[in-house]
Amino acid sequence: MDRMNQSETERCGNQPASEPRVGVYICRCGGNISDVVDTDHVAEVCKLIPGVTTAKVHTFMCSDPGQQTIIDDIRQEKLDRVVVASCSPFLHELTFRGAVMRGKLNAYLYEHVNIREQCSWAHKHDPRGATAKAIALISAAVGKVRHSRPLEKIRLANNQRALIVGGGPAGMKAAADLAACGLSVLLVERSNRLGGKLASPQRMFPTGAASGEILSKLESDMRSTGRVEVLLSSEITRVGGFVGNFDVTIHGPLGPSGSMTDTNVSFGAIIMATGFQPYVPHDGEFLFGRHPAVMTTVALQEALAAAPEGKMLKVNGHEIRRVAFIHCVGSRQVEGVHQPGTDGRLNKHCSRVCCTTVLNQALQIRSRFADTRVYDLYQDIRAYGRGHEQYYTDASRAGVVFFRYHGDEPPAVTAEKDASLHIRVKDYLSWGETLEIEVDLLVLAVGMTPGPCEQIVDQLKLPRGEDGFLQEIHPKLRPVEISVNGVLLAGTAQAPMNLQETLAAAGAAAVKARSMLVKQHVELNPYVAQVDANLCEGLGQCVAECQYDGALKLIETSRNGRTVKMAEVNPGLCVGCGACVAVCPNRAINVNGWRLDQYDEMVDGLVRELVPA
Amino acid sequence: MAPEGFTPKILVLATEACAYPGADAVGKAHLEYGANVYVFRVPSPVLFPEDFYLRAYAHGVDGILIAACGSDCPYRGAYDRLAARIDRLTGRMKAGGLEIGRIRLTAICTVCIAAYLKEVRQLDEALRKLGPVNRQLAAELQQRVRQEMRDTAAQQRGLLVGMTA
Predict the structure, then answer these.
(1) Backbone phi and psi for residue A246, each to the nearest 5 degrees, phi listed first
(2) What is the model's pTM?
(3) ipTM value of the model?
């Protein structure tokens, strides 16, 4: 770690000699606040809070003129602390920290007070109470900010190399794009070959291209860079650390002997390209696993690749005169209708790609095997991508017969004596008629479930969505980032996607990873524990309390010529939870930005009577 | 018995990841609760030692709601440690004669609007019955807890010296 920087922070940590000068800014939020809270009165009373030298009201503090007021006052009024009372800190805390910085003041000498979501909006019918509360909250924030210390972001050396987990199309694309930028990449694949689900031969929608062609292009793009190292039959067994310094153990056939060994490697960023698993129908679901004529779309894909040309489709030597598809198997499951998986969860999500997959397969059957009839039982046809709708039109023209069922009334499948299957379906294309068909093959259009990546998810605490897939920070604004800084999502590890979307996501993840990896240093929030060397006695209670390996340890140091023990924080590993803070009898350890003495000051500010009752 | 027209001061320690956005959600939905409820944002309430709570009572806070993340806690082991600490604290309050109805530990998620409203209303009702906090008693308890922590430290210091000797 960058030791110089820590000592700099400590040096800045001394209280300024003179009494701080705090500027308080109260936002009307265009009436959102001032319709309930008497903002002018708040400003008048705030001038009575010890340390406050300026208190002003503005209609929109977040506007350019609002922010400029702060910047001007820092200079003219010689402010050295700023408090803004406005909306939730989640909206504009960073905005005002930025303004404070532009006013040449340390960004952490700023406090944000929430008087909209937690005051004016929540106490609409109590304007007097809301006004008094706004004053009390500001008074608490002033108490805190008076004891704020300047902080600097923590700078650590960046390990400018990427780890890609998964050697499917997403992993290969991300590796190729990153390596093309000149970065070094290690791609780890659990199986003994590259390509993931794309490795089995198939005709891809919407272009009709062969999967093998796409795969070899992806691989040559990746290999030609000369900067991607590929490890097959290898797994990540341990992962720790943080952005810029992920510390990973890989178990695989490494070294010249090729025997299975553990190797530790460091990376700056990790791209999760762990992909999906096709849903496996449970035993007996539409007779799956109990009748030889029931298979999934995945199995049909292989059967189609192997099938001899002719008038009729042949699967395992059997002539298929009639084939039916059932959509949404393992997707869009309904409570009370479908059986939950082993984890007790229903797959409520739409897997998105199965509709066009079915249409693609149905069309292939109709165009290659003129005498095989095709029935398609669906809930909704979601042929959403460019060119996908054409598959539906073409399938209709090619004589595919469609049935539409409701999700809570799935078709009923029974076995016939002659090895064929009987399907009963309540069909809403004929206004709810119950229709019956007999088929020689039933194909279940299985959806996507999350690929295996438990180890990494557990160790890095990656969040999953309700559907079990890895969850991005924001579906629109930050679609390939996850809440653990430095970890990125590529492809179907995140959600069901088709190949086109998978490669787009992988490209986006590569660009995001690149923007992190090109930096010599990474910057971390300064909200980590810090030890006060003057108070620490080296008792070690904080170390015993800490749950993060290496974040806190006892070191021997020299004080007044004597060797003494003292706690030391590794700011790169400390997460700033504060578990250590509560157990120190000397209050010698604190979380920067959230120190205990500041909370005490907040309590005192809250209960302070500014105007005689 | 509570004096006529007594309004308790309620402090909510709300986690940045869950309960604080949860409290925001209540305001966004324009649902109302008493203006005597004040929210402090915290990374995790696990950072507060027992004496912090007692000091707050001693300074005139009548009730404290610890609105944590529960099982969604982003910090390893923090919630269990917090729960154990609050257990010890309530034990001390009980033994020292301070009403344990003045403290509540709960989990509030980012969209737990109803749970948030229920918790603050119930605490408010309970405090209105209890009346103002006995600040003198709380201050004495706080001093006692601080002293105990210092004693433990002194004992440990002795052990450490013993080890090096």
Answers:
(1) -75, 140
(2) 0.70
(3) 0.96
